[in-house]
Design brief:
single chain, 286 residues, alpha/beta, Rossmann fold, Hypothetical Protein Tm841, Chain: A,domain 3, 2 domains, 6-stranded mixed β-sheet, 13 strands, lipid-binding, DegV_C, lipid binding, DegV family protein
């Protein structure tokens, strides 16, 4: 049995970073006006943020089908028998289904799951899967352990730029204008509770109250010993620090917090100024 871990850029790794870890990588596509970029290959988070600052409205789509086919064909030639596939949720993209279909066509067994989210939780699951592969754990056992962690995961996004959400069709222009006047901040959720789609969890006044509400909800489901926490910074250092401070207040100073920039897969929808916070139960043995 020859096994590979495969992911896409929703996990926040670049192609080089993934390959250095022995992980295979497919880039999501980012369309900016008439040009298409490959996320994590020829487009960095900093470059994407620069486009957002200048008022562009990027869109994302699944990895190029030709790249998927070429990779699965190479697996067949190289004798790869099993692939552990970890992608962003099926509610956000058809990437997982496309890769499974290609694997079936090429006779490569795909072991996968719906993680119902993306961002930091996806990164953690990818890194954990690679560690378990290196420990010679059977693919089905790895998927079972990942599923257990996904069952105990959740994530919230708090956007600052409501006009950007409106331009992207996720909020009406009138609702965005009214919310801005009233300083209303929607708390968005992407988890199993929302079937892996972006949905509104709650609406509160001010970014500070939104962050406190999100962390309060998290405090009911997680603890410092058994969970990993991710904070995503969409060019909002003040909000990011407030999330970190709130997590420390609730869980203590020994909590494990990973801080990353907001990855392209979500940043194109929220625009600049957003913050995110996620938790996931630690994967057994990883």
């Amino acid at each position: 049995m020859k096994i590979r871990v495969l992911t896409e850029s929703g996990c926040g790794l670049t192609k080089q970073e993934a390959n250095d870890l022995g992980i295979d990588f497919l880039p999501l596509q980012v369309q900016i006006e008439d040009k298409t970029y490959l996320d994590g290959v020829d487009l960095t988070v900093e470059e994407l943020n620069s486009f957002l600052e200048r008022g562009f409205m990027p869109q994302t789509s699944m990895p190029p089908l030709g790249d998927i086919e070429a990779l699965l064909e190479s697996y067949k030639k190289d004798g790869i028998t099993d692939v552990i596939l970890i992608t962003l949720s099926n509610g956000l993209s058809g990437t997982n289904q496309a890769i499974q279909a290609s694997g079936k066509w090429h006779g490569v067994k795909i072991h996968t799951l719906d993680i119902y989210t993306t961002l930091g939780v996806e990164k953690y699951l990818v890194l954990s899967a690679q560690k378990l592969v290196e420990q010679k754990i059977h693919p089905e056992e790895i998927i079972s352990r990942l599923k257990e962690s996904v069952e105990h995961s959740r994530g919230f996004l708090i956007p600052e730029d409501l006009d950007h959400l409106a331009k992207g069709g996720r909020l009406t222009p009138m609702a965005a204008k009214l919310a801005g006047m009233l300083k209303i901040k929607p708390i968005l959720e992407v988890s199993k509770n929302t079937e892996g789609k972006v949905d509104v969890f709650d609406k509160v006044r001010t970014m500070s109250k939104a962050i406190k509400k999100a962390v309060k909800v998290i405090s009911k489901d997680a603890n410092a010993q058994d969970y990993e926490f991710y904070v995503l910074n969409g060019e909002n250092q003040e909000g990011t620090q407030l999330v970190i401070d709130e997590l420390h207040d609730v869980f203590g100073e020994n909590i494990q917090i990973h801080t990353d920039p907001m990855y392209a897969v979500i940043a194109v929808h929220t625009g600049l100024g957003a913050v995110g916070v996620q938790f996931v139960k630690k994967v057994k043995g990883a």
